[in-house]
Inverse folding.
């Protein structure tokens, strides 16, 4: 796109830290070529780096890329390596770079495309990849000794066999015999090939090939056996190319597939055990990603696994194609700290071979890490910080008015008929943790228990500590764990981890019988209280426990409790604690000063591919904290009006009261600012989106329905309720009421949206833009937040912005609902970042005092580096100041005597307003003047 006369200043030569990133979700419908076509727009917006979802080969048709099946190849569905090279060349031509998401914790399994996994299924413990995956080859269950549970059936095993849906097949390309079940393939052991080939009247040539396979079992040396196996497979491939050989193979398969008992006997001998997918929670003997049976955990702590899975990344980094990485689900790894340090060492070793293009400094590394309340990110991992969930929580809390907490809490409790004791979020989270642990992670709990019991059995003093006592005690420790996990290793744990373990122990003790409470002391010692040293059993037990608490916490809090607790959904977000309602300005300043000191290069994000609600949905719902009485009155009115459409089922009302409350909030938050309720097609589209969200939300809550056993009657009634409200009998009265309510919130919500956009762009760290969120983001949880983005309309808006004559953006407020004002604020802010790189790279953070009657409605700070500086002023909780204004512009006199006090270093400096062209002077800035045209301000020297 041609750059207009007021386009952002051209970016400087790339340094160690990206100036700003844009997150793109890549898939076969949005490839490297699609991204390359947008680079001029991203450059004009002020972006320095693309930040993409994983680029390695994923399961065919993957919409996210986290189900990697081949980490050694660039995903062909994205265009492959050739298209990636073209993208990188185009980036470098614009002085831009590339950051990629990597997935070290797990790989996609099942299906027929993960060669490493298929080899494990075929060869069992003798596979070259047997130790790549985190498999327990000797679990307590004797039926799984030297086998892998394969929970990929959509029905009971017996039904699948009897129906003929399990069939032995031959793949001509790989020369592999495998049981087929729809798209899944389960290879049979090579030693069974001889018996299959000899079924019926096998000819001489077929017997000769069968003999090659028959001899494999007698070969002890693994290397020799693999070489002979390759020779036998080549012979089979050659046999299958002949007409007689192909017919012989087909006949053998037909004969065997017609005999279910014989097929069952064959499958019983394999290194896998087929089962219904629901069995995984109870019986699985390999680590999953959360409770997802199609994602298998990797043993990344093993050197050969690390090198094999990262070889492509290291090569691309060495070539200068990649400048940094975001590490997905770092807490799933055995030792996240050691992994991160190892990754940095290896990338830095490759750095010396990099061409001049790309970053001038070491690699930029951030991790996906969920931090609990008051949990400090470890500073010894060798990373640049987190990927921003902590910031998303902080800025979200800042937008909420603490004065509304009590009324909203009481309103929620009365709505659902709950007692005051159920008010704290912990009252919802604790039973969710217990349910998730025992219903979804029973197999993992058993494995951790067995590992601890093995430790106990080798210690004389712990000889009588039983398996069941350990399981009971460990379960309560995990349930009461205050964070995702600890990071102890063979040398023990640090003081931070010790305090966390003791907090969990203190919470667990009252839930245990007195006879079991002494077991907690043993668990304390085994979880790093005493160094494990070279004791492999102790090391395994520690690893099993640390890799258990993390997925339980994530699944219980993010994916369960956050869908049950509905006080105000804008605080139910990834990385947030719904129990922490708000953050005042002083606490926010303190957090940002700490960020500037400790994590100046961490990512700043307010929207992600994992968010439950778009950033502007949260910004609008935050306004309810300022107007709790208005919200409660509207919600109760709607509840009364809609009572007759709530269906009474034997299991209770549909939707449930809690679900109805959350539905109303969702409609308020997700209603597009520019939507006309008379537009039937647009309203129906919204209804479809909300209905899909509701189904997912109710299943995640696991109260009236769930993913394992959906209550179709309840879900259908709840869906009907949505459509009745938006497109059916209730629509004629509900739509105008809902629309009017949204419009009353919208100006304040828009100011919240601009506030968090400006803060993200100017605070210490690297601002990230989630795809399409430069306009108002009213998306819901995935897959809604991964819908196609209308980049054409964003292109036209950018072009018009850069072609605009004049400095003020006030003209965009006339049509503020279209989102262009948000994009313009972002573009101007990122232009200042490009013009004053030192301020944002290393400038200090100074909170600014605000005086006057509106002081509690303002947050202001300066960032100063030498003679260069910026001043940021944003309003907070502005409903009262806006009154009945229909646009996000403050009425004259709204700020009265409110002023911002500049630091002494800027008191005599001329400051230029980025958004309206004013030139202002200190030592005090009158808010009535600073925010006269735009509701937020960015001033610079």
């Amino acid at each position: 796109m041609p750059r207009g006369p007021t386009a952002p200043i051209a970016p400087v030569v790339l340094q160690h830290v990206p100036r700003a990133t844009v997150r793109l979700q890549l898939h076969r419908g949005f490839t490297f070529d699609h991204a390359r076509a947008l680079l001029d727009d991203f450059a004009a917006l002020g972006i320095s780096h693309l930040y993409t979802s994983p680029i390695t080969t994923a399961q065919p048709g993957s919409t996210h890329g986290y189900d990697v099946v081949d980490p050694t190849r660039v995903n062909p569905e994205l265009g492959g390596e050739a298209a990636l090279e073209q993208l990188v060349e185009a980036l470098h031509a614009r002085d831009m770079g590339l950051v990629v998401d990597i997935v070290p914790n797990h790989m996609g399994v099942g299906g027929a495309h993960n060669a490493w996994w298929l080899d494990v299924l075929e060869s069992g413990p003798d596979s070259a990849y047997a130790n790549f995956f985190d498999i327990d080859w000797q679990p307590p269950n004797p039926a799984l000794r030297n086998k892998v549970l394969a929970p990929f059936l959509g029905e009971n095993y017996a039904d699948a066999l009897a129906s003929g849906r399990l069939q032995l097949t031959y793949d001509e390309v790989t020369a592999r015999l495998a049981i087929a079940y729809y798209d899944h393939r389960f290879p049979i052991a090579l030693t069974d090939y001889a018996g299959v080939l000899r079924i019926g009247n096998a000819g001489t040539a077929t017997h000769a090939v069968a003999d090659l396979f028959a001899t494999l079992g007698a070969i002890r040396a693994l290397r020799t056996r693999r070489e002979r196996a390759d020779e036998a497979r080549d012979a089979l491939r050659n046999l299958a190319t002949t007409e007689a050989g192909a017919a012989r193979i087909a006949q053998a398969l037909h004969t065997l597939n017609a005999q279910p008992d014989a097929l069952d006997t064959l499958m019983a001998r394999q290194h896998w055990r087929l089962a219904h997918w629901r069995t995984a929670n109870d019986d699985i003997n390999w680590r999953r990603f959360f409770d997802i049976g199609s994602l298998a955990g990797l043993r990344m702590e093993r050197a050969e696994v690390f090198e094999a899975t990262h070889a492509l990344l290291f090569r691309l980094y060495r070539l200068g194609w990649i400048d940094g990485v975001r590490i997905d689900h770092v807490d799933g790894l055995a030792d996240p700290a050691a992994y991160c340090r190892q990754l940095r060492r290896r990338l830095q070793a490759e750095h010396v071979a990099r061409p001049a293009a790309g970053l001038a400094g070491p690699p930029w590394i951030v991790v996906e890490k969920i931090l609990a309340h008051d949990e400090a990110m470890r500073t010894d991992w060798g990373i640049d910080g987190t990927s921003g969930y902590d910031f998303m929580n902080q800025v979200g809390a800042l937008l909420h008015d603490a004065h509304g907490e009590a009324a909203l809490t009481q309103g929620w409790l009365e709505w659902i008929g709950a007692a005051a004791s159920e008010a704290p979020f912990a009252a919802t989270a604790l039973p969710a943790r217990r349910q998730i642990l025992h219903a979804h992670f029973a197999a993992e709990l058993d494995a951790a228990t067995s590992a601890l019991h093995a430790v106990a059995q080798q210690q004389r003093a712990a000889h009588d500590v039983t398996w069941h006592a350990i399981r009971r005690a460990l379960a309560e420790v995990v349930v009461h764990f205050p964070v995702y996990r600890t990071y102890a290793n063979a040398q023990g744990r640090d003081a931070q981890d010790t305090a966390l373990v003791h907090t969990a122990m203190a919470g667990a003790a009252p839930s245990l019988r007195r006879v079991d409470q002494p077991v907690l002391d043993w668990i304390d010692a085994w979880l790093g209280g005493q160094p494990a040293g070279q004791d492999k059993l102790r090391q395994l037990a520690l690893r099993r426990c640390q890799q258990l608490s993390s997925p339980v916490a994530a699944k219980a809090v993010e994916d369960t409790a956050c869908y049950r607790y509905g006080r105000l959904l804008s605080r139910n977000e990834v990385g947030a604690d719904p129990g922490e309602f708000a953050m005042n300005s002083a606490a926010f300043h303190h957090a940002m000063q700490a960020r500037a000191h400790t994590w100046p290069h961490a990512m700043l994000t307010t929207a992600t591919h994992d968010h439950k609600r778009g950033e502007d949905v949260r910004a609008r719902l935050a306004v309810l904290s300022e107007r709790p009485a208005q919200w409660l009155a509207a919600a109760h009115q709607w509840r009364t009006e809609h009572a007759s459409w709530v269906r009474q089922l034997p299991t209770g009302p549909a939707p449930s009261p809690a679900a109805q409350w959350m539905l109303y909030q969702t409609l308020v938050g997700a209603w597009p600012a520019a939507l006309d309720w008379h537009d039937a097609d647009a309203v129906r589209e919204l209804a479809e989106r909300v209905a899909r969200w509701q189904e997912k939300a109710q299943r995640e809550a696991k109260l009236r329905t769930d993913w394992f056993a959906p209550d179709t009657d309840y879900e259908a009634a709840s869906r009907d309720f949505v459509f009745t409200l938006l497109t059916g009998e209730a629509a004629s009265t509900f739509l105008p009421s809902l629309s009017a309510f949204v419009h009353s919130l919208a100006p304040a919500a828009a100011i919240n949206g601009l506030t968090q956009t400006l803060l993200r762009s100017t605070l210490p760290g690297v601002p990230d833009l989630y795809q399409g969120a430069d306009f108002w983001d009213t998306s819901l949880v995935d897959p809604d937040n991964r819908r196609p983005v209308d980049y054409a309309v964003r292109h036209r808006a950018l072009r018009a912005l850069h072609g605009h004559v004049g400095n003020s953006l006030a003209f965009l407020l006339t049509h503020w609902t279209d989102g262009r004002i948000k994009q313009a604020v972002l573009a101007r802010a990122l232009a200042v970042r490009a013009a004053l790189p030192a301020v944002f790279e290393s400038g200090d953070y100074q909170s600014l005092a605000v005086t006057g009657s509106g002081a509690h409605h303002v947050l202001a700070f300066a960032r100063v580096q030498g003679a260069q500086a910026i001043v940021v002023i944003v309003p907070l909780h502005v409903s009262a100041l806006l009154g009945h204004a229909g646009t996000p512009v403050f009425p004259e006199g709204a700020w009265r005597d409110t002023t911002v006090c500049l630091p002494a270093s800027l008191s005599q400096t001329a400051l230029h307003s980025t958004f309206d062209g004013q030139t202002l002077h200190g030592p005090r800035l009158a808010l009535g003047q600073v925010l006269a045209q735009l509701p937020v301000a960015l001033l610079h020297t």
Notes: The first strand starts at residue 21 and ends at 24. Confidence is low (pLDDT under 50) at residues 1-14. DSSP finds 33 helices and 29 strands in the chain.
